[in-house]
Known about the structure:
110 residues; metal-binding; cytoplasm; EF_Hand_1_Ca_BS; EF_hand_dom
Amino acid sequence: MASPHAGNVPPGVDPEAFSWFQSVDADHSGYISVKELKQALVNSNWSAFNDETCLLMINMFDKTRSGRIDVYGFSALMRFIQQWKNLFQQYDRDQSGSISFNELQQDPAV
């Protein structure tokens, strides 16, 4: 794989995820570690993510089981987070930032 810091967005990688990957990969290793992912999420006001949560997320997209993800895994993780965020917002009808089990039960699709 070419270095993700070479400037060209790899095929199949979202350009926004690529740009964020470049800023998150603080050591320019071409991979995101748990520490780097946690820092990126905290900087994006997603402070609820702790080391264990970040490790879980990395493990979901770490095809080599190395404890870190490359730009492809990072792009897939960002898509996954965005899908869950969109789903949450669909049920957070009053935009309170929370949903209840009762709201989910009222939806015939669930």
